[in-house]
Design brief:
Layout (H helix, E strand, L loop, with lengths): L2 E4 L20 H9 L12 H11 L4 E5 L10 H6 L5 E5 L10 H12 L2 H9 L2 E4 L2 H4 L11 H12 L13 E5 L5 E5 L10 E3 L2 E3 L8 H13 L5 E5 L18 H13 L5 E5 L6 E7 L2 E7 L27 E8 L4 E8 L4 E8 L2
Parallel strand pairs: 2-3, 3-4, 6-9, 9-10, 10-12
Antiparallel strand pairs: 1-15, 2-13, 5-6, 7-8, 11-12, 13-14, 14-15
Amino acid sequence: MITVLDKPVYRCASLRIRYSTSLLISTALLLLTACRSERTHDATNHSNAAKIDRLAKDGDVQVIALGSCNRASESQDYWSTIAQQDPDLWIWLGDIIYGDSENPEVLKRKYDRQLSSSQYQDFIADVPIIGIWDDHDYGVNNGGKEFKIKVESRDLLFDFLDVADRHRAEEGAYQSYTFGRKPSLKVILLDARYFRDVVRYRDRKTVPSKRGTILGKEQWSWLDKELSKSNADIHLIASGIQFLPEEHPYEKWANFPKEREKLLDMIAKHDVSHPILLSGDRHLAEISRVLHRGKTIVELTSSGLTHSYTSYKHEPNAHRMGPVMSDKNFGVIRTDPQDGIISLEIWGIDGELYHKIQMPLE
C-alpha cells in the first residue's frame, strides 16, 4: 500500500553538527603534488570521494536529499534550507550548471562559480554528494552522443563532483554506489546523454524513436549486472530525464519507448527490491507510479532549485500521484527502519513540505 498525503506542512528544525579537519602536508609532498599532471580523487580524507567511501563502508543512509536545475549565477540561499533536513547524502539530478557550450573552459568556469558559493561550500562540508548530468551541464540543450566534447565534459563533471578514480575507467558518466545496512541502499546513476541517439522533432515536438538507444550497449550490460547481483533493500535509479510520464512533448524516456520498456522489464525480471526512479529536467516536481509485470515502480521528479515552471497550468500524466509543484523545490527520501516506512517528499525551497507519499519497507 502507498499512502498519499496531500500538501502537509511542517518544518524540520534538526541541525547538523559541523566539523572541520586540518591536514598537514610536508614540503616534499607539496612539491610532488605540484608536479603531477593528473588529479588524484581518492587520496585525502577530507575529499568528497573519501567521504563517499566512508559512508559506503561505515554509515547508514536514511535521509537522502536531491534536486536539479541550478543556475550558479542565481541565489544559493536554499542550501541552508536543505541542510535543515539533515541529509546523509545529496544527489544531483542534472543541470547542475547551465554550461551550454562546446568550450570546456566555459563549462569549467561555471562549475568553479558553483564551487565558489559559500552556501554550497557550507553544505558539502557536511554532506557527501553524488550525481549525474542532464543536457545543460553536458554542454548542449537536448544533446546526445553527437556532442563534440563529451569526453572533456564528463571529466569536468567528475572533477566537480570529486568522483573517485575507479569510476573514471569507463566511458560516460554512469555510476553505482551501495550504502548502509539498516536498510541497505543501492544508488544507480544512469547516463542518458553520452550514448543517446539523436532525437527527432516534428512541429517542435519529439518523434518517438523505434530503434534508437538511450543508454547504449555497454551501459545496458553494466546495468543488467548491477541489478542482477544486488541484494540491497532499496534501489534508487536516477537519470536526468523522466522515466515514467508518456504524454508531455518534452524530453523523456518515452521518446525511446523500447528503451523505457526494457528498463521496466529489467527491474521486474530481477525482482528489484523497492525500485524508486529519480529524475530532474522539468522545472517542476511530481511523483509518478506504474505497475509493471506485478512490480510497483515509483518515480520522484524534483527539478527547479533556482528557477521553475512558473507558467505551469496543466500537463497530462496518467501515472501521476497527487499534485504538481511548479515552484522552486527539492526532494527528500526518508527511510524509517523502526516503523518500516519509506517516505518520498517534495519540499519548497522556503522550507514547506508540499507533497508526501509513504510506502511500506518490507
